[in-house]
Amino acid sequence: MRLCSRLALVALLLLSVVPSAALAQEAPPALHVAEVTPTSLIVELNCPGETIPTLTATIDGAAHPVSAPTRPAVPLALVVVIETTPVMDATGTPHSTRLHDALTRAHALLDRLPPGSQAGLVAFDATARLVLPLTTDGVAARRALGALVAAPRPLSEQPPALGHALRLASEALIDAPVGPRALALFAASAPDAATPPLPAGLIAARAVVDLGATDAEARGPLAPLAANLGALYLTYAAADSAALLTRSMAIDHRLADWLGAAAPLQVQVALERLAPGKHELTLTGCGAPVTARFDLPAPNKPFPVWWLGLGAVPLVVGAMVVTWRRRTRSGAPEPPADSTKRYRAPGAVTTERRVTGSLPALEVVVWDGRERRVWPVRSRQITIGRDPGCDVCIASSWVSGLHARLSLIGDRLEITDMESTNGTLVGDPERPLTPGVPEPLEAGEIARIGPHVRFCVQVAAPPGDNAGP
Asked: What number does CATH give the domain 77-261?
């Protein structure tokens, strides 16, 4: 009898663990080596918090100079959870309900997503439901938010399904592609029962916007939940219309900083007098020290150019002698110095651009760090590089003088890496382009040069249209 009781207890424990284990995933490494060159090392560090820490680096126990950490605007996955119970029909701020306030702040949050990000939506009242799976379609995300305006329904005897809603959001984030993840909750009702914690393997930034507070300084009913989740806690309430604008701007700025902190830090470490081979990097300053191993390649020895000069001397002298003899025998006069004629071999390919047919309304969008610039497409051949003569000029040390070329052939777009120094990456997952070989490029597909420069070709938006996350 005792054996049966123990077996039953073990079975119950296993059943309680299985759902949490199904949601668990392997946590990404805290420190990732992104790029290794003979002179520097670029790493990515997952460091929570909105403030950027001061880091120190050691390689094999010896200190090495480290640059100031930065947070580049990289695509991320965001799931928004919104309560739709009758509590959200109550007045939250002057002339609006709590649900309307939640939808307005959620719209502002979507507007601050980096290009290429994914957004999803979960709503809950007596039951929880996945309204919109993760998608890069910003218009669909905004339409899904707008459909919640008339969503509040009576709860009868059932409490709000907040725990189930957080579980659905966690499942959606776990299935998202590799990259930063974030979860934002907009609600006003405190859970009646203890809300289960998020899966241990889910690495995601969390924020709770409490619309149940009576004023901006008071803590609302969701404060204990935010502390339990380790989330950023914000209250959204205003007693009069004069304070509403300031409160809205403060909430939007805090959420923007919170989204930016979801991206990993990028750090450049100088490799001074470091021998080629395997080494171990240790970074301190963000919690416990983190380590990563990397392999430093041997520098390429430059070819002695003076050998080419010695070999070319006989050829140049011989060509000059042959030319002099031919002119002496034929008696033909030398061509005038101001001649503008040029020899063109049969079948030679020129760089002349021929525009056939009408061009579609396209534009090249470039993100260089935190700066975003747009160039309209006015030709079927667009050059990208650091040289001022390029059609799209990017002043970055990672970009070569002539780095890449975009070609519009009919309605098809191609990209060619022009044998650049640092190469060009496209696709998801990213793959390097073969130098000199054109490859197709989809509209809106992100191409990357180095750690900071990204660009894409997209359909030009009409004036005043800001759709898209």
From this structure: 3.40.50.410
